[in-house]
Amino acid sequence: MPTAPRICPLCEATCGLVLTLDGSRVTGARGDRDDVFSRGFVCPKGAAFPQIDGDPDRLRTPLVRENGRLREANWDEAFDTIAARLRPLIEGYGPDALGIVLGNPNVHTMAGALYPPLLLRATGTSRLFTASTLDQMPKHVAVGLLFGDPFAIPVPDLDRTDHLLVIGANPLDSNGSLCTAPDFPGRLAALRRRGGTLTVVDPRRTRTARLADRHLAPRPGTDALLLAALVHTLFAEDLADPGPLADRTEGVDQVRDAVREFTPEAVAPACELDPGAIRAVARELAAAPTAAVYGRMGSSTVAHGTLANWLVDVLNVLTGNLDRPGGVLFPRSATAPAPRPAGPGRGFLLGRRHSRVSGHPEVKGEFPLAALAEEIDTPGTDAPGEGRVRALITIAANPVLSAPDGRRLDAALDTLDLMVCVDPYLNETTRHADVLLPPPPPSQSAHFDFALNGFAVRDQARYTPAAVPLEPGRMDECEIHARLVLAASGMHGAPPSAVDDLAIDAALAKAVTQPHSPAYGADPKEFAAGLTGESGAERRLDLMLRLGPYRLTLDELKARPHGIDLGPLKPRLDEVLKTPSGRIELLPAPLAADLPRLRAALTAVPEPGALQLVGRRHLRSNNSWLHNTPALNGGSNRCTLQVHPDDAARLRLADGAPARVRGAGGELTADVEVTDAVRAGVVSLPHGWGHDRPGTRLTVAAARPGVNVNQLLDGSLLDPLSGTAVLNGFPVEVAPLD
Ligand code: SF4
């Protein structure tokens, strides 16, 4: 049987797969042993690639709404409709009448990386909402303020560290996030084999926690308090030692003052942890030859998410582990711009604009996805430029399930003047579309990880062309995006390559003026003429590789189908820092201003018997995307409410029986799973479920729909600095259904 390599697009680990092909059908998938990064690793999701790729529910042609019903249409008709209806709305009401929602799968496609920035620029809208404000925005804000660049995210040097402290992450099930590492389980096992230590902080005894030398299970939402106590202990016991970072860091003494009252004893009642255990973690961290502190969802999607993410890197700095092998390091992606000379930069600004209804500050050009519904359904003045979202473009996004209070958003989407969706499925969100544009299955698209290589634990570059040709009637995903840009910008009818040519021209016009760029002083036209590639997207990839720090080319990547290894991560702090001071700014003003809120949390101890809800990941799941795959929806991947045995006995909840869960945004019914894997006072429901709405085409998911945990939220609980929804650690009431 013929085979083809394909980088797996199903989670952030980016494993290399070898697909087995029968004509244009994918019949098998296994780990690619020759892949320079993943070395043959594959998980159940990757193994299910053929089922995911060949899902009969995938849409094959565009859908256009006519007389209230969606019908199949051809591509020209679909784009004609968009051009005819979208431009008048933008011209009549201003660019902010258009909202754009980007879902998390965009980081797993080339099109999702290359074209949405052009769509934003072409339409001029400032109404951008992405999955980041349901996930990782606290990390962007924290590193933006610390290092001056919201994308300068240091990742743990997994393969060399002596001590890994994991907070609110479960990489054995997620396979890692903001830390691209194929075979995370194997890398953690190797850490243990070489005598290293793993500490896990999580209110659940996850698969990762079970592997740990030490597991702390604090009350959810108190990670920032715990981290502040760890920082306090480093200072109190004279263990803080930034080493060579001391000369490149300002604000160390101010941090010492800022955490003075967060003693282990002071945070212990709120965290419900033993102060001795907190001190022990701080001492082990300081004593380890090298150590890395890594936090993710559980410490981000909480009320103090930005403070927690800031404190993670404060610990990495104070223990001297930032930017050194075995600590946390900044990856160097092959398509990142070549580094500029070291020196002060412009820094990172928050709140340059505010949202229309609740006045949420803009963060990284985005508004909170939790505020999308109110931006649509809150009446405006009808005046041009008043800013009510009247038209929406969603790309690979399902916010009806992924954002708080899906019912309100569901109703709001019905009131839009126009909704355009790029999505392979008719799902809970796209069922509201006026025009639905389905990209082809992943086997029919080329792949390069523009975003995820920037978070990888080893520098490398891999490109896989489409494994099979496009089926008749399908349109290449990059062409769909390019045509959408044209239709939305008033250039409808121009060739899609015009979009890529404009992007190349703009990038080169800048690069030729930058002394640190490989294109400095070149003739832009000549440079562009030298680019290779069979499509606009390939030419843009070739350009980014040539302008990148390794000066690779697309031809070089194509000649090495299992990738090019660029070596372990290397110290490069000077290249990264873009703060106004040119140094690490350890206590930025916006974070200092948020500390009184954390101090107030010291005494915010819940009533006896109160319950808090946390989410959870499953190896066979990824947000809302994969529930329509028979091999992944079932077995232990179930949407159950996990309850500790003590709470179950107290509340008379029986294992397997339905329970009513009530939160500020609504209530739902879920089957109880009694387990001591959650600590007492905590219940857990996974997210991404709730596939029971009419009008979708998700046969497998609808047969086993689960419940939408985000319906328990009303959208009002946010981390104020990042606009990120509080999806973990919020209060709920639970009772037997009858
Ligand atoms: S770990 Fe992630 S990238 Fe690797 S095979 Fe599984 S889903 Fe794919």
Automatic annotation (TrEMBL):
Q: Which keywords does the record carry?
A: 4Fe-4S, Iron, Iron-sulfur, Metal-binding, Oxidoreductase
> Which Gene3D superfamilies does this UniProt record tie to the protein?
2.40.40.20, 3.40.50.740, ADC-like domains, Dimethylsulfoxide Reductase, domain 2
Q: Does the keyword 4Fe-4S apply?
A: yes
**Domain of life of the organism encoding this protein:** Bacteria
Q: Which PROSITE patterns match?
A: 4FE4S_MOW_BIS_MGD
4Fe-4S Mo/W bis-MGD-type domain: from which residue to which, for each copy?
1-57
Put simply, this protein is called Dehydrogenase
Originating species: Streptomyces hydrogenans
| Classification lineage | Bacteria, Bacillati, Actinomycetota, Actinomycetes, Kitasatosporales
